[in-house]
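agent> Task received from the user: take the single chain below, predict its 3D structure, and emit structure tokens. No templates, no multimer pairing.
agent> Plan: (1) validate residues, (2) run structure prediction, (3) serialize to tokens, (4) report one or two observations.
agent> Step 1 OK, no nonstandard residues flagged.
tool_call: predict_structure(input=
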Amino acid sequence: MASEAYRRVRSDDARGGGEHTGTNALPPRLRIVKPKPEERYVTCVPLVPLKVAAGAFNDPQHIDDDRFAWAAVETGHHLCRGMFVAQVVGRSMEPMIPNGAYCLFASPVEGTRQGKTGLVQMRDATDPESSERYTVKRYESERAKQGDSWRHTRITLKPVNPDFEPIILTGADEGQLQVIAEVVEVLGALT
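)
tool_result: status=success, residues=191
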């Protein structure tokens, strides 16, 4: 299913309707490469449209790597399986993530999600800015002890830009979202 979605987005890109606008339209810290298998996740990571990443990276160990363009990344971070680059479109995370910026993501999210900026897929809600079921926001939650465990009473997907409202889910909505990946680094926008 992820491979089919990616194929459709790639064909949209060729017609000019996709998020990624071609190999010449990348920030200086990224360049499209054709890596040898041993270079994958060492010097480069997949370059995927955010819509595809929201579905494809639910299980980063089972990605059809040959379906993605690969981007060499100038970063101080150690690259590893589950990482990818995607373009974030929208102003809700400005100035931290400028509209159109490419970001390095890591999946799955390790440890607590509290305070991390991540790619979140919502099942029954949409981002008011994009009208999509995925969003990039800062994750904040409030929890309460229930018996021997904890449960979320409120999850807030918080924008940085004060012109945008947060997306708030109550504890009853907790199962309605999945944190897909964490933003590791903003690599830059097109110049």
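agent> Step 4: summary for the user.
The longest strand covers residues 134-146.
agent> Done.
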